[in-house]
Design goal:
alpha+beta, 5-stranded mixed β-sheet, about 50% helix, AbrB family transcriptional regulator, SpoVR-like_C, Spore_V_R, SpoVR_N
Length: about 675
């Protein structure tokens, strides 16, 4: 056995208990993760896995080496250390770097269990469908593409060029459709030529010449062909190219069918794009979810030992404190906000049923310090130690207590039919084992945490009025103390799991990012202003912050491009449209993508978009008046024929089809974007 394998084996033996107990704690907390297989790997192996997107085998391509080199340099120069990688699979596979400390390994394990829960239960991951075995799928793709590259009949350079072309468009899919439906892209139905119908009719040549002359038939065919343009733009550009794409044959001087290996490679890479799409669509939700439960398990449930906690706290502070748009920080704060607002609504609902309390006098008559004390968890749940177990026993048949685990905890030997590690319960190390989901929810009720003190009192009168609007038993309790007894401590966690099942980042931010959240967490927007020539804070209004964030998450933060016609101008040209949202395309990059799209179409390719143009005089006047100049927006069509680019003005009706409206977050936020 190689020395590094010995090191990995030793590291793995130390992690058997933490991986086993973390999975049990996750389930106690209401999570339902896929089973997770943990693998201990070396530093180089970890970097290779990161380069391969979390898998051990991928198809041959230069992109993996580039990613590996970048990750290695980030680690080498202190710009980012790899702690964890886990893939969406059933079972999931997680990789732990053998050189990391035990505190870091525990943090990764608790983080991974939450990711595995998200993979298993979020509906967007379910769109890929079927019995998930992603590792096997990607390995099959790797072997197939490697086989093509080793085929002496196929030029390896042609394969690499073709893969480059497909990867330029890998985000041009319809990620909102189930993959089973997306595998059958919509056909563009060509109109029937009337000539063919006339052939089957009993019409004399004389009548046909008089009524259906050839010039008229030609005009009719052209009109029907033009009307056959795709009624709805097709977002799955890769699917359209897979079905209708061709290649330009230099020798023949015309387009020819794609080779079988080309269609096969395109199909495999498109399948992988659909597999990875949910991870891109839920980055904030998923990382925030994992950070939330990791923090609760490692810190509040003391999964990090006393000698490990400071190191763990430093680790999490660095992760959450990373600069830029940090999905861990934004996601965790939003999940905490959802938990707090749900719990606040539950408590307020109880208090509004107390005699003498109404939405009008709520803030005047409720003693929030008293409520804070009444909401504290039962002492027997909060301070679990070997010498306090009698207090739990005294609770009797209580739904907050795991009776079986408590019996083992107070027994000297436990049940001999159980495994040794289950025979007794070490409540010093794992106090959570003697509690149920209900008990843990009360033990960790968010509104009693010091950082949330005062959150209940900040509830708005409008929300109180809404809560009480249809409340008929508004004098159910004689006192505040009686009302607090009926508080459901699981409400916040229950609501979080509901949201985890159905949302993606766009809907998550749209639904739950409020002015209260933006103000309390100090979010704002900033823009480059032409008037000042630098970046300035432009707004702290939550609507502006929301729009700014949503633009970065809609369509993975990439421009949305769709197929508008596969026979543009009746010349077999491809017409793509950029669904403009107020942000211009980088035309230099767009032209490079058109070159790659041409390789997959075989005929000229067109791209519709809208550009902003500024008048120099208007810019100067705006600068003197300290305001932003107003640009003129013009539609253009860029055409590439395999050799040269042409720029054309866009027909008004086509410009209308790609211009932003004010309906959704693919549209133009013209209130604040410069």
């Amino acid at each position: 056995m190689r020395p590094n394998r010995l090191t990995a084996r030793k590291a793995a033996s130390k992690l058997e208990e933490p991986t086993r107990e973390a999975a049990k704690l996750a389930r106690k907390l209401g999570l339902e993760p896929y089973p997770v297989n943990y693998w201990v790997v070396s530093y180089d192996e970890m970097n290779a896995l990161i380069a391969y997107g979390g898998f051990q085998t991928r198809y041959p391509h230069w992109r993996w080496g580039m990613t590996y080199d970048r990750q290695q340099k980030q680690d080498q120069f202190g710009m980012g250390k790899a702690f964890e990688i886990v893939n969406n699979d059933n079972p999931s596979h997680a990789f732990l770097q053998e050189s990391n400390t035990l505190a870091d390994q525990k943090a990764v394990i608790t983080h991974v269990e939450a990711h595995a829960d998200f993979f298993a239960n979020n509906s967007w991951f379910g769109l890929f469908g079927g019995d998930l075995d992603a590792a096997a799928m990607l390995e099959r793709h790797s072997e197939a593409i490697a086989g093509y590259m080793e085929d002496p009949e196929i030029d390896r350079a042609d394969i690499e060029k073709f893969i480059d072309a497909v990867l330029c468009l890998e985000d041009c899919i319809d990620q909102h459709r189930p993959f089973a439906e997306a595998t059958d892209p919509r056909e563009r139905t060509a109109p029937e030529d009337l000539r063919e119908r006339l052939e089957g009719m009993n019409i004399s040549d004389e009548v046909r010449r008089q009524v259906f002359d050839e010039e008229w038939l030609d005009r009719l065919a052209e009109a029907e062909e033009a009307a056959a343009d795709l009624t709805d733009p097709q977002k799955d550009v890769l699917g359209y190219l897979q079905q209708h794409g061709m290649q330009y044959d230099e020798e023949e001087g015309k387009a020819s069918e794609l080779e079988p290996w080309q269609r096969d490679v395109l199909d495999m890479l498109r399948t992988e794009a659909y597999y990875f799409a949910p991870q891109k669509m839920t980055k904030v939700m998923n990382e925030g979810w994992a950070a939330y439960w990791e923090s609760l398990m490692m810190g509040e449930e003391r999964f990090a030992g006393e000698n490990e906690f400071l190191l763990y706290a430093d680790h999490q502070a660095k992760v959450l404190g990373s600069p830029g748009l940090n999905p861990y920080k934004l996601g965790k704060e939003l999940w905490e906000y959802i938990e707090n607002t749900t719990n606040r609504r539950e408590v307020a609902d109880r208090l509004l049923r107390v005699e003498g309390v109404s939405w009008r006098n709520f803030h005047e008559v409720v003693d929030f310090d008293e409520v804070q004390e009444l909401l504290q968890p039962h002492p027997a749940l909060d301070g679990i130690r070997p010498d306090t177990l009698d207090e739990l026993v005294a609770l009797g048949d209580d739904p907050r207590v795991d009776a079986d685990a408590l019996d083992r905890a107070v027994s000297e030997y436990g049940d001999e039919e159980l495994d040794a590690d289950e025979r007794t319960v070490d409540v010093d190390k794992y106090p959570w084992k003697v509690l149920t989901y209900e008990g843990l929810a009360e033990r960790h009720f968010s509104l009693v945490k010091p950082q949330n003190r005062g959150f209940l009192g900040r509830i708005r009168r409008s929300e109180l009025e809404q809560l009480s609007r249809y409340m008929f038993d508004d004098e159910q309790y004689a006192s505040v103390a009686e009302a607090i007894v009926d508080v459901d401590y699981t409400t916040g966690w229950d609501r979080m799991r509901e949201i985890r099942e159905s949302h993606n980042d766009v809907t998550f931010l749209d639904a739950f990012l409020t002015q209260e959240f933006v103000t309390n967490n100090h979010y704002f927007t900033y823009e480059f202003t032409r008037a000042s020539g630098d970046f300035r804070v432009t707004s702290t209004d939550y609507q502006d912050v929301k729009k700014k964030l949503l633009l970065q998450f809609t369509n993975f933060g990439k421009p949305t491009v769709a197929v508008y016609d596969g026979n543009y101008g009746n010349r077999n040209e491809l017409l793509l449209g950029h669904q403009y949202n107020g942000i211009m395309l980088d035309l230099g990059q767009a032209k490079q993508v058109l070159e790659r799209a041409y390789d997959l179409w075989g005929h000229p390719v067109n791209l519709m978009t809208i550009v902003k143009e500024y008048d120099d005089h208007d810019v100067e006047v705006a600068r003197r008046r300290n305001r932003e100049p107003t640009p003129v927006e013009n539609g253009i069509r860029v055409r590439y024929d395999g050799e040269t680019f042409e720029h054309h003005d866009l027909e008004p009706e086509l410009e209308d089809r790609i211009a932003a409206g004010d309906i959704d977050y693919d549209t133009k936020p013209d209130e604040w974007l410069s």
